[in-house]
Fold:
Amino acid sequence: MSARLPMLPDDPLVPEIRAAVESLRLAERYRELDRHPEFPRAEFRGLGAAHLLGLRTRAALGGRGLALPRVGVALFRLAHASGTTFAKLSLQPEFSSVLAEHGSPPLVDEWFRPMLRGERLVGNHLTEPGAGSDAAAIATTATREGDGYVLDGTKSEAAFAADAEAAIVYARVPGGEPRGGITAFLVPQDLPGVSRHAGVGDLGERWQRRGSVVYSRVRVPERFRIGEEGKGFDYVRTELTRERALLAAIYLGVARAAWDETVEYVGERSAFGRTLSAQQAVAFPLVEDGASLTAAWLYVERTLERLERGEPADADAAMAKWMAGEVALRALDHAIQFHGGRGYSQSLPHEQRWRDVRSGPIAHGPAEIMHLVAARQLWPRRAGTNP
Ligand SMILES: Cc1cc2nc3c(=O)[nH]c(=O)nc-3n(C[C@H](O)[C@H](O)[C@H](O)COP(=O)(O)OP(=O)(O)OC[C@H]3O[C@@H](n4cnc5c(N)ncnc54)[C@H](O)[C@@H]3O)c2cc1C
Structure:
């Protein structure tokens, strides 16, 4: 007997998402890219052609200009249908919104618009060996020289280290404020002095091929500066808030797919003369997961609505990301568990989904830092610098 699954979040865009998942074989590619990690160029272009990159990006720049709650539903459904990879790829222009919103028009034309078409990949270089959660400790410098800047420093943990054509690099301009004087630059990765190093491999999200990039006396013309000197943190802070809430939607979409499949499976699988669903030890955790996933989704939805209205929702976005990660990982663990031996194997997608979502409590702001962001809302402090 098949289970009666609750409705998925819906949106008029869903048929287009389904069509893209099918024509680009995104569910299959999700699994293949885990076994053979590479940047999925063809799918990036395919998503661009289907206008599924830059869902939130305003129409004047070539995006869909959707309201954030709709973007959340679209990412949930994309992740539900095909795992984290392509939902995150769809979000890639959002990860470069600093460029879209503060870059000069020629810079936007040269780098952002082609990214919306899936033709050029722009990475983000914030983290350094000595500056992760404490991003204000960034040591990379951008020294004014002639009509531009000279970059020196090492960026680490970066997604697409060897694959991105350019990166938004955050650096300190000597002479600026000691904490807070961070400036953003668009840096083509083929400039002299840029050396890129692949990492040793990751637990999940292997297609991102993270690594480090060393900038050694890299000359960057002034026109590659994004916005004003010293404003980099202000720019990236608002981007991080939005992307945290949207990433939460992705974790919940993937977990919901695993939950759906597990609920169906335990309704069919028999042990000791009855279905697994007839065992409370199996049924009750799944019932709890269903409620937790729904509650977390409502929180994400409400946060996206607040952000769309322009209300300050840093704390909610931080805690929505944390909560979505927690409930998603628990549901994915149950999916592995209740599928038994096969659940632990690569013959089913649950272990990959778990490994991929496990990056959530680390990337884009670790779980503990999300709590710090929320705690600062309750107990405000003097104006700080960290995103
Ligand atoms: C899949 C993935 C993709 C990534 N992509 C990129 C990218 O493209 N570009 C980029 O720049 N970076 C990227 N990162 C790096 C990521 O942003 C950092 O790993 C993250 O910010 C944490 O920094 P860290 O690794 O230095 O850890 P640390 O800052 O050393 O933190 C280690 C642990 O200590 C905790 N901690 C630190 N300070 C405190 C505190 N004050 N109170 C309580 N707990 C604390 C943290 O929460 C964390 O759990 C990526 C990471 C992953 C996993």
Observations:
- The CA atoms of residues 22 and 81 lie 9 Å apart.
- The chain has a mean pLDDT of 96.
- The beta strands are 122-125, 141-145, 148-158, 166-172, 182-188, 194-198, 211-221, 225-226, 270-271, 274-275.
